[in-house]
């Protein structure tokens, strides 16, 4: 086949260069033009939800109300009250355990410890770890304090909670939607979930993870990072909406 004329080759090179330049401009400016804004994948919501009509600025719109973790009042490993107000503005990773447990609890506690270490950075100061006992008669604040000490728990970020048995069990079943109760057929006499529960700042459940495995812990850490990014995206969108109305 005869070679293409040099003039034609030059024309193709010029056109290819222009196309590459336009594509580079598109990629560079797309975040400001709004094309990349909707590519972010938000974490799902878990638990019951309700579709309702809401009045917003004189207009009725359809909105979805997601399950929220209810208010709570427990006692931490220092014998001090710890309530939902102390967790306000925090992302929560919650679990249930008991100190005398010889099955899954040691594995869960180690993975929660590793999660604490993995997120040991000022960027994750808004993350709070809450471990609830299902055996409050034995797990007094003093017992929980010693358990936390052995795990080298950061007391500013990881709280071990006890309280009235009924309140703890209700918080598990109705708040986080995980098992937490007495069960005579289970080792140690208690049944509790092996899951870590991820809760956003609005008290919505956003993820469940196997708290006995490294994979579950890593998945939880990655989703916490996504949740922090999600909050930034939502704040940016709210600011754009505010400015557009001015």
Describe the structure.
With 246 residues, the chain is α+β, with helices and mostly antiparallel strands. The protein is built from 5 helices and 11 strands; from the N terminus they run αβββββαβαβαββββα. Helix 2 (105-118) packs across helix 5 (214-245). The chain is globular, with a radius of gyration of 25 Å.
Oligomer: single chain
> Helical content, roughly?
25-40%
N to C succession of SSEs: HEEEEEHEHEHEEEEH
Task: Tell me the distance between the termini.
Answer: 65 Å
Q: Give me the side-by-side strand order of the main sheet.
A: 7-6-5-10-11
With helices defined by DSSP (H or I, 4 residues minimum), what is the helix count? Answer: 5
Shape: globular
Largest sheet: 5 strands, mixed
- How many DSSP-defined strands? 11
User: Strand fraction band?
Assistant: 15-25%
Unreliable segments (pLDDT under 50, ≥5 consecutive)? 1-5, 24-38
Mean of all residue-level pLDDT scores = 87
Q: In terms of structural class, how would the helical and strand content be classed?
A: alpha+beta
Radius of gyration based on Cα positions:
25 Å
